[in-house]
Amino acid sequence: MLAAKLMLSHFPVNTSFFKLHLSDAELMQLPEIAPEVRSEIDLSLSKLGRIIHQQIAESSDRVMLHQAMKHLVVTCNVLIFVGKRALKVYLLDRYVVNRDGDGNLIEVVTVESVHRTLLQAEFQKHLLDTKEKDSNAPGADGPRYGVGSGKSSNNLEEADFYTWAKLQDGQWKWCQEADGKPIPGTDGSSTKNIAPWLSLRFNVVDGEPFGRDRVEEFLGDLTSLENLVRALGEGSAAAAKVILNVSPSASTKPQSLARASNGAIIQGRPDDVGVIQVWKTADFKTV
Predict the structure, then answer these.
(1) How far apart are CA 238 and CA 267, in angstroms?
(2) Is 224 helix (H, G, I), strand (E, B) or coil?
(3) Contact at 8 Å (CB) between 105 and 78?
(4) 61 with 81: CB under 8 angstroms?
(5) Residue 233, CA distances (Å) to 224, 226, 278 in order
(6) 207 and 153 within one domain
(7) Per-residue confidence at 156, pLDDT binned at 50, 70, 90?
(8) Which residues are CB-contacts of 136 (< 8 A; sequence separation ≥ 6)?
(9) Relative to the CA of 127, which of 28, 135, 188, 273 has its CA 20 to 30 Å away?
(10) Treating both helix axes as pointing N-terminal to C-terminal, what angle do 61-74 and 2-10 enclose, rounded to 10 degrees?
(11) What is the dihedral of CA 37, 40, 41, 46, to 10 degrees?
């Protein structure tokens, strides 16, 4: 619910959440721009803004942003890669970052699993070599030796794909590698102001590269709630258990009660049979 409210406040539906315009300070430095030219520039920027809104509505950006909001609330950290076609969200177990003293991002390392057929031929050879050495590979008589290799076929077909980006000499430079070897043609760079990585934090802590989550502020309450809910569930399960108690001197036979179906008639006195109860109704109300 909190993530949905954050989405509506930051990216409202059917409403423009940003506006492109020229800075007044920049216009003051260019007195030769006539009012008619400025009006045409504002009109062009307005059309460009509508085009951007339409592209966001037609893409999966809102889905990715909502996922990022949920992780911000729970873990306080999420990494967004702004690609040419769509956004990509990296969870906290898929990236690490480093920041300078002012909290600015200076280094990013991400990891993701990709199928080896999507990589160059030299990385696909590793898949063939591993399959040949698999001691549990099926043969004419079934698995050889009956011993597994310790890796499933899915793990053999996938490779850990690392991306390393660092701010150097006022520029972002990045490269990618798999199996400990650089991947040809993956080097790139961009200016400092248009880096494709956005490392978001919910609560900023000075001197720490990662933020503190919203859940951490209520850790004591959540721990108490978890214990009480567990106690309530265990107590409800015990209270729901039906046990009949028959007096040792009763004329009613326990076997007759056990074999009796719903609505059956047996001989005996009602006082001979009782039901064991936990008498915890008042405690459950307190919980």
Answers:
(1) 30
(2) helix
(3) no
(4) no
(5) 14, 11, 14
(6) yes
(7) low
(8) 143, 144, 145, 146, 147, 148, 149
(9) 188
(10) 130
(11) 160
Tokens of 218: 């209520």
In this structure, is residue 177 part of a structural domain?
yes
- Per-residue HEC secondary structure of 266-282 comes to CCCCHHHEEECCCCCHH
Residues in the chain: 287
| Whole-number Å distance between alpha carbons of 161 and 22 | 41
pLDDT tens track for 192-222: 888 889 999 988 888 889 988 777 788 899 8
The label of the residue with tokens 């650089």 reads 182
- Kindly state whether residue 70 falls inside one of the protein's structural domains: no
Helix axes 61-74, 35-58, angle to 10 degrees: 80
Element (H or E) spanning 25, and its range? helix 24-28
Q: Which residues contact 30 (CB under 8 A, 6 or more apart)?
A: none
Domain that holds residue 276: 218-286
Task: Kindly state the average pLDDT of the residues 5-11.
Answer: 87
Q: Domains in the chain: how many in total? A: 3
C-alpha distances (whole Å) from 174 to each of 25, 56, 118, 144, 167 are 35, 27, 20, 44, 9
Copy the structure tokens of residue 146.
Answer: 């009956």
The mean per-residue pLDDT over the stretch 280-286 comes to: 85
Residues 132, 204: one domain?
A: yes
pLDDT digits (tens, 9 = 90+) for 43-92: 898 899 888 888 887 788 888 999 999 988 888 899 999 888 888 999 99
Q: Which residues pair with 167 in a beta bridge?
A: 172
